[in-house]
Amino acid sequence: MANANWAKLSLNEISSNILTIKSNDNRMGEAYIPTPNTCDNDTAIIEALPREGYQFAAWHDGNTDNPRTILVTQDTTFTANFEPLTTYQLTVNYDPKQGHISGIGEYYPNEEATLTVTPLGGYRFKQWGDGNTDNPRTIIMTQDTTLEALFITG
Description:
The protein is built from one helix and 13 strands, in the order H-E-E-E-E-E-E-E-E-E-E-E-E-E. By secondary structure, the chain is mainly beta. The longest helix has 4 residues, at 3-6.
């Protein structure tokens, strides 16, 4: 609706429905209204934005759409629920006297992890415990993972 038309509306024509959105914990994320409802449109878009290390879980009513379009027909409050982001641990068993490995640590789900083996003097990398010989080796983290790095003399 054009701004010039606002002056022509009576009070009965202006929506008095209030849309309130909030976060279950502002340290984990925030909720906002990027597209609010207007006097001629009762729909609004709401969105939840997690902070680093957290993820959007669901709205208070269990809906997981994000962003989400809602119909505002009465005073309404929506709460965005956030939770800590799951991480997976990447561990490598190896003899630190034979070499070292970079890339060990925590990763988010579906994050790419790259392990690089650096043998110490008198040793060389042979293979991973599962027979893979890639160095560096890249894996997609979908669970806690433990590998073994095998070295040989030479």
